[in-house]
Protein: dTTP/UTP pyrophosphatase
Organism: Bellilinea caldifistulae
Amino acid sequence: MTQPRLILASNSPRRRQMLAWTGWTFETDAADLNEDPLPGEPPGEYVSRLAGEKARTVAQRYAGEPVFILAADTTVADGYDLLGKPADAQEARAMLRRLRGRTHQVYTALALMDVQNAVLMQDVCVSQVTMRPYSDVEIENYIQSGDPFDKAGGYAIQHADFRPVVDFGGCFASVMGLPLCHLQRTAARVNFVPPHNVPQMCQNNLKYSCPIWQAVLDGESVG
């Protein structure tokens, strides 16, 4: 059976890389939206709203076609404060100092839209992330690498040199921007099945033994 077209509503290199692990063939067509949070908007509602808006915006370009639109949004939450992508070195420095040696939450929302049937399915993944007590010198070196500027909270959990995270609970892939097991269970609702063994591919590529993948696929509220 011919699979419907899949459109990733993102220009993120990490999301493209990770979506390729599923074995699905896909195209990219990003949405250009104002990503500012609404006043007092909780983190889960914020990422869900943005992911949904991205999916609906891109879906308008494919009205009536047998296409799935996949959108995602990620934010770092420190208490009630949302930390998005730092605008400059000063903001990245402030974020990294604020998060240093403490635990925060990373929220990633998925939105998968069946354009032909006008059905939007969503899911949210929440992970607990504890940062190590890295030094100011390490922060400056990391900023000089240019890596913080396209990442919520100003860091990449997978960065081989900086290695900012010392403890973790939830979905590792979600902190990178695309919770793949959550995506698989969402897509299963419309019988859109990935060709590859997604949990295995994810763990192999991330070199990470995930303790929650089966619970996620079973529909449990973990991660």
